[in-house]
Amino acid sequence: MIYVAPIHNPIPGAVRYISQQLPNEFRGLVAVHQTKFDPRIALDKTRNQYNSTILLAELLQELPSKHAKIIGITEVDLFIPVLTFVFGEAQLNGNVAVASSHRLRNSYYGLPENPDLVLERLYKEAVHELGHVFSLTHCDNYRCVMHAATGVEELDLKNAAFCSACNSVLRSASF
Amino acid sequence: MGRHRIRPFEVNIRRRDGHGWAIQMPAPQDRTEVRGLKNHTAAILVVDDEAAVRESLCSWFQKDGYTADTAADAVEALKKLSKRAWDIILLDIKMPNISGMELLRRIRQIDPDIVSIMITAYASVDTAVEALKGGAFDYVVKPIDPDDLSRIVRKAIEQRKLKKENLSLRTKIEDMVPEEELIGDSPQIKKIQEIIETVSQTDVSVLIRGDSGTGKELIARLIHAKSTRRYSPLVAVNCGALPESLLESELFGHEKGSFTGAQYKHRGKLEISNGGTLFLDEVGTIDAKTQVDLLRVLDSKQFTRLGGNQVISVDFRVICATNQDLEQLVKEGKFREDFYYRINVFPINLPPLRDRSGDIRLFAQHFLERYAIQIRKKVLRLSPEALSLIMKHDWPGNVRELKNAIERAVVVAGGPEIRPEDLPFDMNKISKPRGESSIAEVERAHILDMLGRTGWNITRTAQILGIDRVTLYNKIKKYGLSK
C-alpha cells in the first residue's frame, strides 16, 4: 500500500494527480493519508527552509502499517543539513519519502507559471523518491525517472517512468 | 567486500524548547549492499562530527549507487581506513581532538592515492589554500549545492580512475621490460652491470662500443628500462641500414610534399622518442651533414621536419652504438669531432665473447633453456663434447653467433642432449685452438666459407651469420672478398 500525504498546503490538485498516476508505475493500492503532525517543527528559521529529514521522521511515526510506504507532497522548500536544497528525500530501501514542488515551479526561475508542467515535475520527483524507497538507486539512463536530477532541466528531460532495468529491479522488490 | 553492521540512521536535532530529539529510521540492512543500476565501484567514506551531515551525505551517495559509510571522528575514520580500501574521503575540517587537516595528513601517509575532499562550514581563503597544499583534491563549503557535490565527486572518481589506470599501465610496462638480462659473471660483465645501474639514473649520452653481436642494443634497452624514461618509448634506429637521404627523413620526419614521394606528413624518430630514449646503432655510418643536424638537436632539443617550418621541441636521451674505431674516423675526417664528443659522454666497452670465455658456458646454458621452452623440445643439456667444442670456438660473431648456434642445435637435436654434430657444421670445421689465427683471419675465412656455401647469396649468408646485410657488405669490403 502506498499513501500520499499532503504536507503544509501542497499545490492544488497535486495529491489527487499523483494518487491517480502512481498505479502506472507501482503495483498495489494507493490512498491519501492526512498527516497529523505540524510541519513547522521542520522549519529552520535561519535558512527559511524545511529539514526534509525531520519530515521523513514525522511521516515514519504516522506509518499506518509497517509494510506501507508513504510519500509526503509539499510546497515548502526542502533541505538536508549539508546541501543547499533538495527536491525531495527518501529513506533508501525504507518506508518514507517526501517531494516538494517549491523549486519545480517556473516562477522560481523567473519564468511564466505553467501549472501542468509543475504537476508533471512533481509527479516525476514523487516516483523518483518512491523508487528509492523500493531500494532503487540512481540510474545512468537520462530518460529513466531514477536518473539523478539536480536541476529542472534534467527533470524535464527524463520520463515519468522507470527504464526496463530499473523496472525489473522494482518488480523483484517485494511490496 | 567485507560485510559490516551499521547502526540505524540516526539524526540528533535540538528543538527550540531545548529537549533533545532523536529521529530514528531503520537503515538499509547493509550499507554496502544496496542495489543499483550504476556500475559504481567507488567507495566513499564521510568523516564529520555532525551526525546529520555525515548521515545525509552517506545517504546521498548510497542513492547514487556508491558504497558509502561514515565516521564520526578521526579515530573512527582511521579504524575504517585500516579495514578496507576507500576511493574518496570527505573530511570535515573542524572536528574535535584530531582536526580534518591532521587526518588528511595521516590519510596521505597511509594511502597517497585516496582522493580527499575537505568540507567546512567556515569558508576562508587560508583554509582552502592549506587544504589544497595538504594534498586535498577539492574544498567545499557547507551547505553544498547538490550540483556542485555531484560534479566534484564525479571529478574525484575520474581522477582516482586515471590514477589507477596509470598505475596499471606502469605495471604493464614493467612487465614488458625486456626479458633479456646481462648474462655472465666475468669481472668485465659485473663492471658493466654496475655502469648500467649508475648511468641509467642520469640523462647523459652513452656510447656503447663493441664488436658485432656483443649485445650493444641489449645494453641500450637495459639502460632505458632502468631509467626514469622507461614509461616512454625506446626508439632504435639502425643508421647503417639506411641510405643518407632516407636516414635524414627517418630521423627528422618530413612534411607532405617536402620531396618527391613525400605523399604524407611523417613523424621522425626524434619526435617519436620524445620523453624516452633514442638509440642510434652503427652511429659511425652517419654522414657529415646529418651529424651536424643531430648535433644541433642534441644541443637545442629542437628541430624542424624536412620541408617544414614549425619548430618541434623534444626531450629524449641519446644512446649510440658502434663497432667502428670512431677515433680513427675522426682522425681521417670521416666523423665530426664535435659530434663524437657530444655522444661519447659516457662510453661503455663491451668485450668480445672470446675475452670472457667464462661466460660462454653461462650463455650456452641460458640460450639452451630459452629455445627449449620456445621450441617446446625437451633438450636439457649440452654433452661434454659439444660443450668442449663451444668453449674452444672463437665466436667471431659473439653472443649473436652463439645464440644462433644453440637455437639451431636445439632444433636439430634428436634427444635430450646436444651433441657436437648438432652444432653448425662449419663451426666444427673451423674451430681451432686459440692463438693459431687472428680473429680477423677466422672471421674472414668463416664469411668466405658461408658465402661459398650460399653461392654468394648476401641475404641468406647474413641470416646464417646472424648479422644484417649492411654489416656483411662492410665486412666483404673490409676483407676484400670477391667471388
Give the integer mean of the pLDDT values of chain A.
93
- Name the overall outline of chain B: elongated
Main beta sheet of chain B = 5 strands, parallel
What name does the CATH topology of chain A carry?
Collagenase (Catalytic Domain)
Instruction: Report the CATH superfamily of the largest domain in chain B.
Output: Response regulator
Strand order of the largest sheet of chain B: 4-3-5-6-7
Describe what you observe in this structure.
The complex is a heterodimer of chains A (175) and B (483). Chain A is α/β, with parallel strands linked by helices and 175 residues long. Chain A is built from five helices and eight strands, in the order βαβββαββββααα. Chain A has one domain: Collagenase (Catalytic Domain), CATH 3.40.390. Chain A has a five-stranded mixed sheet with strand order 2-1-5-8-7, with helices on both faces. In chain A, a hairpin with a 4-residue loop joins strand 3 and strand 4. Chain A starts with a strand and ends with a helix. The mean pLDDT of chain A is 93. Chain B is α/β, with parallel strands linked by helices. Chain B has helices at 51-63, 74-83, 100-110, 125-133, 146-176, 187-200, 216-226, 244-252, 269-272, 288-300, 326-331, 337-343, 357-375, 384-392, 398-412, 425-430, 439-453, 458-465, 469-479, and strands at 9-14, 20-25, 43-47, 67-71, 88-92, 115-120, 138-141, 206-210, 234-238, 253-254, 266-267, 277-281, 302-304, 311-313, 317-322, 346-350, 381-382, 417-418. Chain B is 46% helix and 16% strand. The radius of gyration of chain B is 33 Å and the shape is elongated. Chain B has three domains: 9-172, 3-Layer(aba) Sandwich (Rossmann fold); 187-350, P-loop containing nucleotide triphosphate hydrolases (Rossmann fold, 3-Layer(aba) Sandwich); 353-479, Helicase, Ruva Protein, domain 3, CATH 1.10.8.60. Chains A and B meet through helix 2 and helix 5 of A and strand 1, strand 2, helix 1 and helix 5 of B.
